[in-house]
Amino acid sequence: MNELKLKILDLLREDARRSPALIATMLGAAEAEVVAAIKELEADHVIVQYATVVNWSKVDDEKVTALIEVQMTPERGRGFDGIAERIYLYPEVKSVYLMSGAYDLLVEVEGRNLKEVASFVSDKLSPIDSVLSTKTHFILKKYKQSGIIFEDHEDDHRMPISP
């Protein structure tokens, strides 16, 4: 991938609302070149979606999010892919990651309440034949997501001290 496309991806990751004209100005490139590069990145599924990061704690309709560690036995010939696909097709599943370490998959699930997430684990996830165990962690508060800090923080007004 060329340097222009990498720079475009970085700028769009920071703010997906940036226009091709602004990106072209920021990179010192022609707008037509930026438009063509973005279209190519979309066609190649490098850019999959433009998304908004929402601080749900500021909205009345809060959601419950859980991270679930899943230990499993890989399927013969398919490894973890088939089971991961079965899991990520559930609408309440937001992300699935193959992990190294103490567990195999990390599954991010979102629900309206604790009971809904618990029901997903007990009724849908745990009964899968290859699943050996699960460990659910409920997210109590998000401080930062996708590089965005959610909390308003005061600047440190202390005097710097140097030796």
From TrEMBL:
SMART domains linked to this entry: HTH_ASNC (SM00344)
Name the record gives this protein: AsnC family transcriptional regulator
UniProt source species: Gordoniibacillus kamchatkensis
Domain named HTH asnC-type: residues: 1-81
Domain of life: Bacteria
UniProtKB keywords: DNA-binding, Transcription, Transcription regulation
Gene3D superfamilies: 3.30.70.920, Winged helix-like DNA-binding domain superfamily/Winged helix DNA-binding domain
